[in-house]
Write a structure and sequence with these properties.
single chain, 1187 residues, mainly beta, Methylamine Dehydrogenase, Chain H, Immunoglobulin-like, 5 domains, six-stranded mixed beta sheet, 5% helix, signal
């Protein structure tokens, strides 16, 4: 076996493996994509950027299968290339899964002092949005297949042969079988394919000999690259692994991998009389060894300059894999012009500011007007320079020198990005200066999941230090940028375009992205994406070729290669643009004039022509056109204001469809359409847009050209898809210029409605100019008072107020007292309401209304309300900025604590008794029961915060004597409440609680206090402060409603006898308050505390305390007598007691005597007849009345 271990590519490389156990026993695995190795010191080093170094043992067997099959496939391979020291190279355990371009050049890698690294890595890519196809036809793709396993399609070039005239696709197959006279088995080859011939391609015969005494062509990879000079030009193709042998069949035998290339004539033959045709091997005969030219590998990249004067070769293995670029001239045209000594020109060794293992010459292109004027510049990629890659711009030093000088260097971004893997020169913006596109298929951004990239440098008149590149991203794991190609002006818009290959995209099927140039440079959105999946291809997009018209339709075509032994040819469709000229009549609609019976009509005249990007394209086209009205309103779900007449029954009322024939470029066809305005339209301000579009239906009399079907043209995607003309309304209430310039202004206030009231009368208070809404059970709704006026402005058409409301204050309704009520339309959840002000809202008018906001959605987490108010009108007004209304929300928890004492009046008396002598609580003094109850007025509001009841308990007076002795604490509610500190409850443990039936009489009558007779008549209030020492009782609450805390206590009788007997009465105040824990800053308690008073008086002084002193009674009696005497005197003076005199006449009475009825008895029975009602009357005659 030829020991080119990476010939099929490597996905997993296992370093430090045991030769007899296979990859599953490797102890230092690294994941890379391509193997790099060095054949010195009988060992191989392998590494991956960012990974560990590993060392593989010499003499290992080359393994080609999975670990389980290692023994079946392992064998000792002969040395593939002998170093200058005569030591054969080592073999590695490898698991091969794919082929990469770096796999094609792998025998060149690494030196003893180098840290060789893989060129290809699996990367992460950003998903690119798919776009619709543009002008590369995907329905008539031409497929060319090669021999399986030959890597047919590894390289591509388009070529035009002038004599005879043929348009060909040249395809390299570097693993094709050897020709008949070659001694090797696998040599590679070059194929020519005619697109008009359905059969497969034909191999081009050259290099059909081999002298094993001086050379080896086994796995030389002929066809690894192929380039054409263009129509009638030469072709160059190379075998970069071609080997020169020395001392054959001797112990000193060695091989140099110099590589070589062939230049063919335009008819794909080698003219022996032409000095520039035949084989080229610039490294042969030069200093050997990997430090010089022993592993040169010329031809990994090769190209012609754009002026056809030179052929350029890349040799990335020279100078310890630093690489060289060589420009050769043996052009017969130049010789005829008398130019005999022009070159060669070369750059390498110390002339290149790059380190070893940079691979300069891995990719090549050239052009004029890159750095200066018409000078030739060679662009060379070095994808391993500085572990990230670089691209170098080279030019001739002078006409007398044979050196190339570095003019500028682009350095790659990020570690192991393989920047410079492929390069292309193209004028993207059409300014005459050549731009540069660089592929970096290994680029990634871990945090953004971005993979391979392409960098586009737009030339700034040769000043490259001023250029910031545009970066195009590929999709994840796609190797985007592995191939880039100038495909010419594929859409004939005067700007060249590029194609980018991503062979590992779409799960390994591969994709190709087409990007268009423009006056601004590259268009970063791909114009078209081609996929290999519909063609059952893998690694589609590995190679690209373009910028030549293969089917003679004046548009350049493109070819795409793969690693599945197939290539596809995509033909470009002609690009045309349909031009539309649209007129409407009348241009302005007067709503007061009916010109169509009882309706209003207008006509639309539309004329169509087409223009192709190439003047020679002039077929007869059939197009379909569409005329639509009010498209924007229909997108908003609103009906169209116009309808078309005489339309097809399948058309909607707002659309008219038809077809027309266009007989050629600039041949016009027209149509006239009538439309009618609908009745009772609302929008009278905004014009009615009429949109006209057209599509290609077909080509008349299609013909077959060059044996290929004529492709359907496609519309230019850079042109607008439709033309729009507007039908305006004649506007009233506007200026002389028929433009309505309104002057809408708004003011607002916030009100709330007190509970059980109908009107919103209370204005919200403000805090630092911000309204504050105190949410409680009495204030449930907000009212936004709004006033809008249009003073000193034209009519405002479709004037409305749009309000946006939060969930906590959603729209509930509107109230208006205007003659014309305001109507508001809200969405389902009340987050937005549109209030119509008028259409039009007349000049100098105003309106006032209330927007009612519901606060049902408010929670205890609500801290503010944000409302957005926006005035809108279709009239012209620039200052209609939205108004932001912010309301601060204060949550007033309606929690309250109420307290009572039972009894609320107690007395003290008897004899003083020390606490040690007391055995039961009755001996302490009078019983007082305190009850504190928690009330939640707002039953629907529950609080997640914790609350506790704090009681200020008056324990001692200032002398340290007992006041109230706390016997017991109990509670009612969902759970028992434990108050603290517990030590304050019945702190004198020797005192026993009494039963509820015992009273003070059970312990005997107390003797009167001796000082009772000397009461001062004064009173005093005992509350917590400097005179009273209180202890705070804390009772955590388990609920916020219905919870009560009861305190059983005793008045300390002895203290009051000793210290307060001289007072007529006292008041003891116990204060209780609610305290919240962890509540939000905007939450407060409305009534957080309460006070309970108990009146205490000495026994026997209660009556005195409650009676009235005698002198007060005496004064009151005397005052009453005095007031009565004064009243009598006043009545006497007024004649009240003066009696009227009676008249001497006496009234006369007239009476009638009525006989009494008696019962009658008949037949021995008593019968009581019914009494007969008699009519009687008494008269009173009085001559005079009393005065």
């Amino acid at each position: 076996m030829e020991a080119a271990l990476c010939e099929r590519g490597v996905e997993q490389i296992y370093c430090g493996c045991s030769p007899d156990k296979g990859p599953s026993h490797c102890h230092n695995r690294t994941r890379i994509s391509c193997l790099h190795f060095h054949t010195a010191a009988s060992s191989v080093r392998c590494c991956s950027f960012g990974e560990r170094w590993g060392r593989c043992g010499a003499g290992s067997a080359a393994w080609r299968g999975p670990p389980a099959a290692a023994a079946a496939f392992s064998h000792t391979a002969p040395g593939w290339a002998q170093s200058s020291s005569g030591v054969k190279g080592s073999q590695l355990w490898t698991y091969r899964t794919h082929l990469d371009r770096c796999a094609a050049m792998l025998p060149l890698q690494g030196g003893p002092s180098a840290a060789p690294a893989a060129l290809l890595f699996y990367s992460l890519f950003l998903e690119t949005t798919l776009v619709l196809a543009f002008n590369l036809d995907t329905g008539n793709v031409i497929r060319k297949d090669g021999e399986p396993g030959s890597l047919f399609g590894f390289s591509l070039a388009m070529h035009r042969q002038l004599n005879p005239d043929k348009r060909l696709l040249l395809i390299g197959a570097p693993r094709a079988p050897a020709l008949g006279k070659q001694k090797a088995r696998i040599t590679g080859g070059l194929y020519k394919c005619e697109i008009t011939n359905a059969s497969n391609c034909e191999r081009i015969e050259f290099d059909n000999e081999e002298d094993l005494r001086i050379e080896s062509k086994e796995n030389q990879w002929m066809g690894v690259t192929v380039q054409s000079q263009g129509p009638g030009g030469k072709i160059v193709t190379c075998a970069h692994r071609y080997q020169r042998r020395m001392f054959v069949d001797t112990p000193q035998e060695s091989r140099d991998i110099t590589g070589r290339c062939y230049v063919l004539s335009q008819d794909l033959t080698i003219n022996k009389d032409a000095e520039d045709e035949g084989d080229w091997n610039s490294c042969e005969g030069r200093a050997r060894g990997h430090e010089m030219f022993g592993y040169c590998q010329q031809g990994l990249a090769a190209t012609f300059t754009k002026d056809y004067h030179y052929v350029v070769f890349g040799a990335p293995g020279a100078y310890n894999w630093k690489g060289i670029v060589r420009v050769e001239q043996k052009n017969s045209t130049l010789i005829e012009m008398g130019v005999f000594d022009d070159g060669p020109y070369e750059v390498g060794d110390e002339l290149v500011p790059l380190p070893a293992n940079s691979y300069l010459g891995f990719s090549l292109d050239s052009g004029h007007r890159i750095t200066r004027g018409r000078d030739l510049t060679v662009v060379a990629g070095a994808p391993r320079a500085n572990h990230s890659g670089a691209v170098v711009l080279l030019r001739k030093e002078s006409d007398t020198s044979h050196r190339l000088l570095v003019e500028h260097t682009f350095y790659g971004p990020g570690l192991a990005s393989s920047f410079g893997y492929d390069v292309v020169v193209v004028d993207l913006n059409g300014d005459g200066w050549q731009d540069i596109v660089v592929g970096a298929p290994q680029f990634y951004m871990k945090d953004r999941d971005i993979g391979g990239a392409v960098y586009v440098y737009i030339n700034q008149a040769g000043r490259w230090d001023r250029v910031t590149p545009v970066r195009l991203h590929g999709t994840k794991d796609s190797m985007f940028g592995l191939a880039v190609e100038n495909i010419g002006d594929i859409n004939q818009d005067s700007y060249e375009d590029i194609a980018v290959g991503a062979p590992y995209d779409d799960s390994g099927a591969g994709k190709v992205y087409i990007y268009h140039g423009s006056a601004q440079g590259i268009k970063t959105i791909p114009a078209q994406i081609l996929s290999g999946k519909p063609h059952n291809m893998s690694l589609f997009g590995y190679s690209l070729a373009g910028n030549m018209d293969l089917d003679s339709n004046s548009y350049p075509d493109m070819a795409v290669g793969s690693l599945s032994d197939s290539a596809l040819i995509y033909r470009a469709r002609p690009v045309i643009s349909i031009r539309r000229a649209v007129k409407v009549s009348p241009r302005e609609i007067d709503l007061t004039i009916k010109n169509c019976e009882s309706s209003i009509c207008f006509t639309v005249d539309a004329c169509f022509t087409y223009k192709a990007n190439h003047a020679s394209y002039n077929p007869r086209l059939t197009i379909s056109y569409t005329v639509e009205a009010d498209g924007e309103r229909r997108k908003q779900g609103l009906p169209s204001r116009a309808m078309f007449l005489n339309k097809f029954h399948t058309d909607t009322d707002y659309q008219f469809n038809g077809t027309l024939d266009l007989r050629g470029q600039k041949q016009e066809s027209c149509v006239k359409i009538t439309a009618k305005l609908k009745d009772n339209i609302k929008d009278k301000m905004r014009s009615i847009p009429i949109e006209v579009s057209a599509e290609i239906l077909g080509i008349k009399r299609q013909k077959v050209r060059n044996g290929l079907p004529l492709l359907m043209p496609i519309l230019d995607s850079s042109q607008p898809s439709k033309d729009v003309i507007e039908v305006n309304f004649v506007k009233e209430g506007c200026g002389s210029d028929h433009v309505c310039r309104s002057n809408l202004k708004m003011e607002y206030k916030l009100y709330y409605k007190p509970n059980n009231q109908e009107k919103y009368t209370e204005l919200l208070p403000t805090e630092k100019n911000v309204p504050v809404f105190h949410l409680n059970y009495e204030k449930k709704d907000l009212a936004l008072w709004v006033r809008v006026n249009n003073m000193n402005g034209d009519d405002a058409y479709e004037a409305k107020l749009v309000g946006s409301f939060p969930d906590v204050a959603s729209y509930s309704g509107v109230r208006s007292q205007q003659p014309t009520p305001i109507i508001c339309t809200a969405n389902q959840n009340g987050s937005q309401a549109d209030c119509e002000l008028g259409n039009p809202f007349k000049s100098n008018s105003k309106t006032t209304f209330y927007i009612i906001l519901s606060t049902a959605g408010m929670t205890l987490d609500t801290t503010e309300i944000d409302i957005d108010l926006q005035l809108q009108t279709t009239s012209v007004q620039d200052n209609l900025a939205s108004v932001k209304v912010k309301v601060k929300v204060i949550i007033e928890l309606p929690l309250s604590v109420s307290g009572e004492a039972s009894p609320n009046q107690v007395s003290f008396g008897g004899v003083v008794k020390g606490e040690s002598a007391m055995k039961t609580e009755e001996e302490i003094g009078s019983l007082i029961n305190y009850t504190f109850r928690i009330n939640n007025v707002w039953k629907t509001l529950t609080s997640p915060v914790k609350a506790s009841l704090h009681i200020q308990w008056p324990k001692f007076n200032k002398n340290g004597k007992w006041l109230l002795y706390l016997v017991k604490i109990s509670s009612t509610g969902p759970q028992e409440i434990l108050c603290s500190p517990e030590s304050e409850i019945n702190s004198l443990k020797h005192i026993r609680e009494s039963s509820a039936s015992r009273t003070k009489r059970e312990i005997g009558e107390r003797k009167p206090v001796s000082k009772m007779s000397s009461l001062s008549g004064k009173n005093k209030v005992l509350s917590c402060g400097k005179d009273i020492k209180c202890v705070e009782l804390s009772c955590p609450l388990q609920g916020l409603d219905g919870t009560a805390v009861e305190l059983r206590s005793r008045l300390w009788n002895s203290t009051f006898i000793e210290d307060y007997a001289s007072l007529s009465h006292l008041e003891i105040v116990v204060k209780a308050s609610l305290v919240l824990h962890g509540q939000p800053k905007n939450m407060i308690l409305k009534t957080p505390d309460t006070k309970v008073k108990v009146t205490v008086s000495p026994e026997g002084a209660v009556a005195q305390h409650t009676g009235v002193p005698w002198w007060i009674i005496l004064v009151a009696v005397l005052a009453g007598i005095l007031i009565l005497a004064l009243l009598v005197f006043l009545l006497w003076k007024c004649g009240f007691f003066k009696r009227s005199k009676r008249d001497d006449s006496v009234p006369r009475y007239h009476a009638v005597r009525i006989r009494k009825e008696t019962p009658e008895y008949k037949d021995g029975t008593v019968k009581l007849d019914a009494f007969e009602r008699k009519q009687w009357m008494t008269s009173w005659i009085d001559n005079e009345s009393y005065s």
